[in-house]
Amino acid sequence: MIPSWIDGVPADALSVKDRGLAYGDGLFETVLVKAGQPLLFERHLERLARGSKRLVMALDLPLIERECKAFAAQVNEGVMKLIVTRGDGQRGYAPTADVQPRRVLQASPSPVYPAANAEQGIRLFPCRTRLAEQPLLAGLKHLNRLEQVLARNEWHDTEHAEGLMRDVSGRIVEAVYSNLFMVKRGVLLTPDLTRCGVAGVMRAALLDLAEQNNLPVRALDLDLSDLQKADEVFVCNSVYGIWPVRGFEQLNWPVGPVTRKLQHLVRGLLDI
Amino acid sequence: MIPSWIDGVPADALSVKDRGLAYGDGLFETVLVKAGQPLLFERHLERLARGSKRLVMALDLPLIERECKAFAAQVNEGVMKLIVTRGDGQRGYAPTADVQPRRVLQASPSPVYPAANAEQGIRLFPCRTRLAEQPLLAGLKHLNRLEQVLARNEWHDTEHAEGLMRDVSGRIVEAVYSNLFMVKRGVLLTPDLTRCGVAGVMRAALLDLAEQNNLPVRALDLDLSDLQKADEVFVCNSVYGIWPVRGFEQLNWPVGPVTRKLQHLVRGLLDI
Description:
The first copy, chain A, is of the alpha+beta class. Helix content of chain A is 29%, strand content 29%. Chain A has helices at residues 19-23, 41-54, 61-75, 115-119, 146-152, 201-212, 224-229, 257-270; strands at 5-6, 9-10, 13-15, 26-34, 37-38, 78-85, 102-108, 122-126, 160-166, 172-175, 179-184, 187-191, 217-220, 232-237, 241-248, 251-252. In chain A, the strands form 2 sheets. In chain A, strands 8, 9, 10, 11, 12, 13, 14, 15 and 16 form a 9-stranded mixed sheet that branches. In chain A, strands 2-1-7-6-4-5 form a 6-stranded antiparallel sheet. In chain A, strand 1 and strand 2 (9-10) form a beta hairpin. At the A-B interface, strand 3, helix 1, strand 6, strand 7 and helix 5 of A face strand 3, helix 1, strand 6, strand 7 and helix 5 of B.
């Protein structure tokens, strides 16, 4: 894999004064790269722009776009991770007037998941770590991710490929590194993410794909009783696409026709 | 000021793979240093130990203690910031089996605050940013601090030296970089921090000092109506000690006798 870039220059270390380290004061995007192209890239940039507005960080988005494309061309095949931080700080939460956001690009090989994940589906681990409700940060892919770190540390077996996360009120929100969908009587349902959760790029792509294919879709509050009544369940993200969920605790689901249809449509997005 | 240390060695940059940057996966302590000594250091170490247990990070605490003391001796007068992260990671929330926590030490000059802050007291800005309720992380000084960054960005005047933060349910929790106390009919009251907030080292010291001086003290749920009824209000942290609060919105308080007495006792802790 190629070395990391910091502010457009190959580098493997960044200032200890960076506010990304000090406070998690920044955002990130994890982008699949195929044939030198960053996939679903418009959507990644869109979420980054939304996040930077919410965090009041002035990003040079055209520069970031150019840099990511140049980096992806070098990666060719793999995963590109972009981190943007508010830049260097002094002691204290207030940024200095001259603060300059910093861009970090890292490459890693395409992850190799068991083929069974996409074919026969996965089991979800029931995470005890709950997501706090923070509407100001909901939906963003920001650098404050201790909840996910704690949740991912709850299981170490290979039987569970993902974990189900609920909020402190018990609502189903997402999986640790994926978004979740259910199908019920032909309608696609996915948790509302206005209180917490990461609004995934693949989730957004699926919401559009469903609409284009006349598949009714709703984002709403969902709980464990909805999961019990679901006909199909799947998780998705922008790196692996869609994995059917075949089990969660004592619940089991077949890999249904809506999941298969969406998997087929998503392959079109991820294979260029 | 002396250069930063990373894992005991002078260095000003750290690996872009650090999980502190990627996820805010770590903890920090901000320690006042006088005459080469880190002040209230036992309490700082105690909180660090508590945090590392909660985050399931295996820290070498005796090594950290030795290193901090050696660093503080070089700083002599100023503020020492210790960051511990889980260390370098691969892509993904799960740490690798061989992950090694990283220690970062940074020095900065003693901050110069207006003398009036401690003498006549300060005004608190009413922050609109609410703290999410996350009992798993409550009390810790972890690296996920976007809520404080957003709150501190709400005011830019010099009229307000601190900002009051409430949780999503409206309870008073703390100030942006301080803990808060009220005095009501001779009883010292401070918000319970089991849902959110940072359990400050000076707060812990004050709770002990109060007990030693037969001053009744309670940690409990407090809201704006309690603030309206308070006889005295003050904020505290381990760097500046105690600042009386003289105003919040339309409320005003005198600098009362309990606040003055505690300021006197705290000077004993911070002047060695």
